[in-house]
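<instruction>
Derive structure tokens from the sequence
<entry> Chain with its tokenised backbone below:
===
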Amino acid sequence: MKVEIYTLTTAALYIFSIFILFLIALLVTFKRRKQANEASRFLALYYWASLISISVSYLVTTPYLVYFPHLFRSAQLFILLFMPLSYFYIRQTISYKSLGLIDLLHLLPLLVFVADYFPFFLLAGERKMEIWRGLSDYRLKAGFKEGWFMPEGSHIIIRYASMMLYWILQFRLLYRKPLQSSGEKDLASPIQLTWFRWLLWTQAIMILPSLLTLIFVTKQLQTVLYALAPLVSALLQGYFLFTHPEILYGIDANKQNLNTPLANGYNAGNDNNVAPLPETNSSYLDLVDDSTLNQIEALLNSIMKKEEAFLNPNLKVADLTTITGFDSHKLAAYFNKRCGITFNDYINTHRVNYCAAKLESGEYRAKTLEALSAESGFQSRSTFIRAFKKSKGITPSEFVHSIKVV
């Protein structure tokens, strides 16, 4: 009876964990479907890898494995991936450091496991089920004795050593002191840093109990803790994401204290917010590589030409961070390095060109300039005239006159 209670409890915990992780994975993937930055991709992949590893780990403890025999021992593939993915997510957001060839070393534990278990993965499903039926509960979870060249139990050691290593690497990223002498600044917003630390300590909830169960508790309680730890971790992470949707939508630049053209000129519909490009504060600009700038350029071109986002008179930087998935630092770097103008000037140039096309098509005959300026996304006549003259060198009236002359 007691064994049945443990079994039912474990099953319920696993199923609940799978359900929560599935919701989070869907949320992260869906909310970033229009985003293209690598950091958000890593977060989505982190949750999918976690979901698959938990799902397969549970399946292997049930008779239903007979329907999916080739999944036996495959959970290790995803377990060895989700912590590196978390590390890349945090590192990419904080430092904007793109992946390089040296980062292939992070795949070493995974490659060792694949090489060791390659002959096993080629076995027929019936043979895998024979091996599975012959394993005790402990051998099933920690034995890993079916490999080609690695000693029994070595892969479980590699698993936890890898998880602890990446946890420590994340800890160093989040709690190291900034190098004031080099002018280094935090490149993540306060809410992002809070989220990263929340993620870090909830991962500890998942990792540490699993380590302790190998030593201090009974096998039955060990099984329950194996299922309980990821559930608690997933619930806490899900709670933070649901209560702080800006993590997925993009950080509101209006709330950031950034000395960038975006922070100072955040609303393209209000000419009082136009700000000059900063003469200094270029430390963050140098950290955004050309590949990222090309991605931003392609996205913005699509957003402006196809979706005509500039027609929204209340368009703000926060809206672009939501649509593109790139935070205000990277957008500022793009406007500064590629365009050499402020966010306001960029948006207003598109509005002026849109209005000019309307004027050239003859719409001035049926509509006033004020009506055309409103249709183009301007909130006031004075802003429209000032932006038009800045872009075209002449006022809207002079532009219309030139069309009539022609």
Notes: The two ends are 94 Å apart (CA to CA). Residues 2-249 form a domain with the Rhopdopsin 7-helix transmembrane proteins fold (CATH 1.20.1070). The chain has a mean pLDDT of 80.
